[in-house]
Amino acid sequence: MSSNGKFSIDPESGDLLVADYLDREAKQMYMLVIEAWDNYQFGYLSGESRNAFKQIFVSILDENDNTPVMTVPEGCAQVTEFHNIREPLMEIKATDIDDSETGNAQIEFEIVETIGTNIFYLKQIASGKAEIYSNQSLNNLYGNYSLLITARDKGVPSNAVSEKVDICVLDFNDHAPNFIFPSNDSIIHVPENATVGTSIIQSYFNGGPRT
Ligand SMILES: [Ca+2]
Ligand SMILES: [Ca+2]
Ligand SMILES: [Ca+2]
């Protein structure tokens, strides 16, 4: 019998037994060749025994013994406050080495906690792939936000992993300063005897990045 030590056979009953730890993720199919002898005990040496071979295949069924592995952007995903809300803020992926034909390797995502704001939501694109969006404009919402995201397989029972992702909404310098004084089209009178360096006028303006 060729089984890499994973199977044994009871020579009397012919029962095929599991002899060692099995791992479908390492080897999914075994081909066993079982040799059967009749009259082995008394007839083998005298040539009175006959043998026959039988080839059988053993397929290992999947158990949900692996947890998804999530891939999230490193560091803070940076977007400007003028990010188009139809564009994703980031992409999240997860893989699971269990059998992809079963729920054991099909993955769903969920935002389980948000820190800072509740305007972010998750859209599942495919098994193991999701995108994060904001449901409103980020205008004037500059700052740092965090989401805790869980990736869970559909095995029974399921396995899950959680990762924190950070979103940094950057202030965009969208406000030009406004002159308060002088007003537009002012005429400034300067004496002709003004010397180099004479102060003529002091201008005032408001505005700046964060108004
Ligand atoms: Ca396994
Ligand atoms: Ca498995
Ligand atoms: Ca799994």
Overview of the structural elements:
The chain has one helix and 14 strands; from the N terminus they run βββαβββββββββββ. The chain has one helix at residues 40-43; strands at residues 7-9, 16-18, 29-37, 51-59, 69-71, 76-80, 90-95, 107-115, 120-126, 129-134, 143-153, 160-170, 178-181, 204-206. The radius of gyration is 36 Å and the shape is rod-shaped. β1 and β2 form a beta hairpin. A four-stranded antiparallel sheet has the order 5-7-10-9, with no helix packed on it. Strands 6-12-11-8 form a four-stranded mixed sheet, with no helix packed on it. 2% of the residues lie in helices and 42% in strands. The termini are far apart. It is mostly beta strands.
Number of strands: 14
Strand content: 35-45%
* Rg calculated over all Cα atoms: 36 Å
Q: How many individual helices?
A: 1
State the separation between the terminal residues, measured CA to CA: 80 Å
Main sheet characteristics = 4 strands, antiparallel
- Going by helix content, strand content and strand pairing, the class is mainly beta
